[in-house]
Amino acid sequence: MGNGTKFAVIAGCVVALVGVGGWFGGRIAVEKVVHDYILENPEIIPEAMDNLQRKQASQQLAGVRQNVETPFPGAVLGNPNGKVTMVEFSDYACGYCRRSLPDVAELLKKNPDLRIVVRELPIIGPESPAAAKMALAAAEQGKFPQFHDAMFAMGQVDAQSIEAAAQKAGLDMERARKVAAGPAVAQELSRNMEIAGRLGFSGTPSWVAGERLISGAVGVDQLSQAVAEARGGGKPG
């Protein structure tokens, strides 16, 4: 008998006790049965917490999912037309984002139907906004992945490294500077800040996949599980 079935049986007994003992006695009976059941089956606690987190994530995503999963044009890694979407909130000055790069590369290698929508969230360093703006300018030229990789490879974020990453990505610099300073980029960064706040994200990297909201450099296994669930399966492929 599984945990769910056993608990249903116990719940039925509790209902009977409530009927026999009245409200007060029934409440005591409920508390004792639940207490004893949890002590005897502690493995249900992670499952219950997981279900709670999913429910909370679903509530937080309600009404903003389309905005979350719709990229700034071109700001995508992997398959732009992928059937499975993961969203990453990222900052080029974030060491944990840099640490997650191999995880992202592995996810994309193993999931050819995956697109990762990158939402620039420049909150860490003084030059983070400038790097984010240039990244979106690179996206406008269809060269977001090239700039993304080059910028993280620089190891630091300052005016010189941003310029070097842009040139390495092969950007038309005059056009890029104009786009980076334009209203569309400013609106995108403001929108990302608003969405992150609504989802409860206060740092980078942060991730959205299906009904999962994940904070931090959690490793490829947890991200793979989230991608599998977003696809509709229970385990990574």
UniProtKB/TrEMBL annotation:
Q: Which InterPro entries match?
A: DSBA-like_thioredoxin_dom, ScsC_N, Thioredoxin-like_sf, Thioredoxin_domain
Cite the PROSITE patterns for this sequence.
Answer: THIOREDOXIN_2
* Example of a GO MF term: oxidoreductase activity
Residues in Thioredoxin domain copies: 66-232
Keyword Disulfide bond carried by entry = yes
Q: Please indicate which superkingdom the organism of origin belongs to.
A: Bacteria
Q: What UniProt keywords are attached to this protein's entry?
A: Disulfide bond, Membrane, Oxidoreductase, Redox-active center, Signal, Transmembrane, Transmembrane helix
Q: Which chain regions cross the lipid bilayer?
A: 7-26
What name does the UniProt record give this protein? DsbA family protein
Lineage from the top down? Answer: Bacteria, Pseudomonadati, Pseudomonadota, Alphaproteobacteria, Sphingomonadales
